[in-house]
Design a protein that fits this description.
The protein has helices at residues 24-33, 53-60, 73-76, 87-91, 100-111, 116-140, 149-154, 156-166, 173-184, 190-213, 219-225, 236-266, 269-276, 282-292, 325-329, 332-335, 365-382; strands at 14-15, 36-41, 45-50, 65-66, 146-148, 298-304, 308-310, 313-315, 321-324, 387-388, 410-412. A hairpin with a 3-residue loop joins strand 2 and strand 3. It contains 17 helices and eleven strands. It has one domain (14-412): Orthogonal Bundle (Cytochrome p450). It is globular and about 55 Å long. Keywords: Heme, Iron, Metal-binding, Monooxygenase, Oxidoreductase. This is Cytochrome P450. Belongs to the cytochrome P450 family. Residues 1-21 are annotated as: Disordered.
């Protein structure tokens, strides 16, 4: 990365489709033009996306790239309306929008919940919940043996785990997922967006009040009580913002990861046969899915604090920049000419960026990996002939260019 100007003609901006859809064809076209692309966000907001693997890796760790929306020029100029579908990503208070000392403070207060030791302590409950959900799949299936795997398995597993970690009662799970879906949607109207955010804050405020009144052995109680040596703790807004981000990131990404892995294995039976025969591991499946079909396509936002030139393209100071994880995963310059091929024996699979890079690397990565490996191994051990019940191209896609997956996953359990 350098900071010198360029005389190259600027390509026409890519208008991101608020309705989402499969990102890979558009990603390939954009990558053919370069590692950075100008984009038009909903509401005709001008932005940029960093798509190339190496450019994104450098950009994510660059010292002159910030996460705090005080650096979002259009927002600070009053040009972003209330109800803009991506505004929550910019303005929520928490780790994903903090920089420097604030980010280190918030991350240190959360870090104990996601250590390797804590993840291992959660393994028995993950395995027990996985077994219960598998038991319920055949019951939920219709007479034709078809069941929506996303609704009955891929969703309740990570939602149950993250809510157990946070001390959120089961009665809130369905509503929190519905609200999370609205918050990450990019095709939502202003009134709906603001209503979803208000209700999410109301639900999480009730959770925080319950844990304040009756602390337990959970992360919410720990966040309420936590103090660093200097006396710092979560402010009320930071607490609610952190709960929101942890619930959304803690289940939506793992839900998409499990869903995308099942889709990949069902449409690449040779790869499924290989792992069932012991020729590759379930961890290999997870890493290749993260690379090949990232659970997050374009993640908002980062802002250069000065004009930067990335791969020959100037990104002006204050521009909202999307991290193009799904594009970087199929960048042929990083992953070879066959980057679009799903191959669980790929030796460079661990080089993907789908869980982030740098100071904001996903804190929940070990938990997401453990949940996904457990889910896939037990699912296909129990139902090795499991297959899609409809052709993969007919599966309805997420109404978002942030999340990358399908809304339903009907499968036939016994082929």
């Amino acid at each position: 990365m350098n900071t010198s100007p360029t005389n190259a003609a600027a390509p026409s901006p890519h208008r991101l489709d608020p309705a989402g859809g499969c990102p890979h064809a558009a990603n390939a076209r954009l990558l053919a033009r370069g590692a950075v692309a100008p984009v038009v966000l909903p509401g005709d907001v001008q932005g940029m996306a960093v798509l190339g693997h190496e450019a994104l890796k450098e950009f994510l760790a660059h010292p002159d790239v910030a996460k705090n929306a005080q650096h979002f020029a259009a927002l600070q100029a009053g040009e972003i309306a209330d109800g803009w579908p991506l505004k929550t990503f910019a303005t929520v208070q928490g780790m994903t929008t903090a920089d420097g000392a604030d980010h280190r403070r918030l991350r240190s207060l959360m870090s104990k919940a996601f250590t390797a030791r804590r993840v291992e302590e959660l393994r028995p409950s993950v395995e027990e919940l996985t077994s219960r959900l598998l038991d319920g799949l055949e019951t939920a299936a219709g007479e034709d043996g078809v069941v929506d795997l996303r609704t009955h398995f891929a969703l309740p597993l990570p939602m149950g785990v993250i809510c157990e970690l946070l001390g959120v009662e089961e009665s809130h799970h369905d509503r929190l997922h519905a609200l999370s879906n609205q918050i990450v949607a990019t095709d939502i109207g202003p009134a709906e967006a603001m209503a979803a955010n208000r209700e999410m804050v109301e639900v999480l405020s009730a959770v925080a009040a319950a844990r304040t009144a009756d602390p337990g052995d959970d992360l919410t109680s720990a966040m309420i009580a936590a103090r660093e040596e200097g006396g710092d703790r979560f402010s009320p807004h930071e607490l609610i913002g952190t709960l929101m981000l942890t619930i959304i990131a803690g289940h939506e990404t793992t839900l998409n990861l499990i869903t995308n892995a099942v889709r990949a294995l069902c449409t690449h039976r040779d790869q499924l046969d290989l792992v069932l025969a012991g020729g590759a591991s379930w961890a290999d499946v997870v890493e290749e899915t993260l690379r090949w079909d990232s659970p997050v396509s374009y993640f908002p936002f980062r802002y250069p604090t000065r004009d930067l030139t990335v791969d020959g393209t100037v990104i002006p100071r204050g521009t909202p920049v999307l991290a193009g994880y799904s594009a970087a995963g199929r960048d042929t310059r990083a992953h070879g000419a066959d980057a679009a091929r799903f191959d669980i024996t790929r030796t460079d699979g661990s080089r993907h960026l789908s869980l982030g890079h740098g100071a904001h690397f996903c804190m929940g990565a070990p938990l997401a990996r453990m949940e996904s490996v457990t889910a896939l191994e037990r699912l296909f051990t129990r139902f090795p002939a499991l297959d899609l019940a409809v052709p993969e191209p007919e599966l309805p896609r997420h109404a978002s260019f942030v999340g990358n997956s399908v809304r339903t996953l009907p499968v036939r359990l016994k082929g």
